[in-house]
Design goal:
Layout lengths: L2 H4 L3 H11 L8 E2 L2 H7 L2 E6 L9 H10 L3 H5 L2 E4 L3 H13 L3 E6 L4 H9 L3 E5 L6 H12 L2 E2 L6 H20 L6 E5 L4 H13 L4 E7 L4 H8 L23 H10 L2 E5 L1 H15 L9 H7 L8 E6 L6 H10 L4
Parallel strand pairs: 2-10, 3-4, 3-6, 4-5, 7-8, 7-10, 8-9
Antiparallel strand pairs: 1-2
Helix pairs in contact: 2-9, 2-10, 4-6, 4-9, 6-7, 9-10, 10-12, 13-14
């Protein structure tokens, strides 16, 4: 089997959207005069932070679980995640009556650990600096027969995440707008890969950009070199959900062909965007969910007619949120 045999398509994403529409929230696409003025472009804001569990991750997780057989579901599922995918898998498992085990880093935000437990999943904590989460998850799957639910590098996951872009593009099309550019948070690349496929199926000339924290710019460097690049060491960032050390094999096979490029933002720009969202959009965002907003506030969309951004997550510990609001009182 070649890589092209497992790559999802825009048609797969359309079918997935039909499969998921009774389960997930079709989150609103908002606009803000203040943001459009600062960005120098009309900005469509896909508020996926208002999704179940506060993140887009339920889409891919549920799509994967819905396509498991009865026998596979009865053996349970296992996933590894810094927190948002964990909650998505936990909620999808709860809805479908499936036992879920999640491998999470010990330093994952407390709200993400708490919410995952509340949804009924068993959590196995590990040290992200000295242990291999994929190895731990694989051993659990081998021992229990549980199905592995990857965070991003699987066709069903990518197709699920791509429904975010499909809803955004359909909204723009229905409004009679032409999307010039689309900015999307990027960790392992599943969300931006799925969105690239779905958005370009409606707006063929729309340029798709992955937005990463500057210390985790593996997708940007991979796009420039044509080969997957790794992040060296464990650099610090406030974007805990975007700390994947390397793009996925399947996600990069899509993104290498579909993306116009990769952009990076600093932690300071990201914190500013979190405060801006609270003040002007009345939305709670975690730092990882605010990087696309940070990019357009930084001027990347200047003088374009119409662009879209994804606000991908809202799961931030309250102390960090209040500290950011205190640090940026007039964002």
């Amino acid at each position: 089997m070649t890589m092209t045999d497992v790559l999802p398509t825009a048609r797969n994403i359309g079918e997935t959207h039909t499969r998921l529409r009774e389960w997930v929230i079709s989150t609103p696409v908002l606009e803000s005069d203040v943001l459009s003025l600062r960005a120098g472009s009309r900005v469509l804001i896909k508020a996926e932070s208002l999704q179940h569990t506060g993140t887009f991750k339920i889409r891919g997780a549920l799509n994967r679980l819905l396509q498991l057989s009865h026998e596979e579901r009865s053996a349970g599922v296992v996933a590894f995640s810094s927190g948002n995918h964990a909650q998505g898998v936990a909620m999808a498992s709860k809805w479908l009556g499936v036992k879920a085990t999640i491998v999470m880093p010990k330093d994952a935000p407390k709200i993400k650990q708490f919410n995952t437990r509340i949804l009924g999943a068993e959590i196995i904590l590990y040290d992200r600096y000295s242990e291999d989460r994929e190895y731990i998850a694989a051993k659990i799957a081998q021992k229990t027969g549980a199905a592995l639910v990857p965070a991003f590098d699987h066709p069903d996951i990518i197709a699920g995440q791509g429904t975010v872009g499909l809803e955004t593009a359909r909204h723009a099309y229905d409004k009679g707008l032409e999307l010039n550019a689309f900015y999307c948070p990027c960790g392992g690349g599943g969300l931006v890969a799925g969105c690239a496929l779905s958005v370009n199926s409606i707006f063929e000339k729309c340029e798709i950009y992955a937005v990463e924290p500057e210390s985790y710019d593996d997708t940007r460097r991979s796009l420039e070199s044509g080969e997957r690049q790794m992040v060296c060491g464990h650099p610090a960032t406030i974007c805990d959900a975007l700390m994947a050390p390397m793009p996925g094999a399947i996600t990069f096979a899509i993104n290498r062909e579909a993306l116009a490029g990769g952009l990076t933002v600093t932690d300071t720009q990201t914190a500013h965007a979190v405060a801006f969202a609270a003040r002007h959009l009345k939305l709670v965002l975690e730092p990882a969910g605010a990087v696309a907003l940070a990019a357009v506030l930084g001027g990347v969309a200047q003088d374009l007619d119409c662009v879209a951004i994804i606000l991908s997550g809202a799961n931030i510990d309250h102390k960090r949120f209040l500290q950011i609001l205190d640090d940026y009182p007039d964002p």
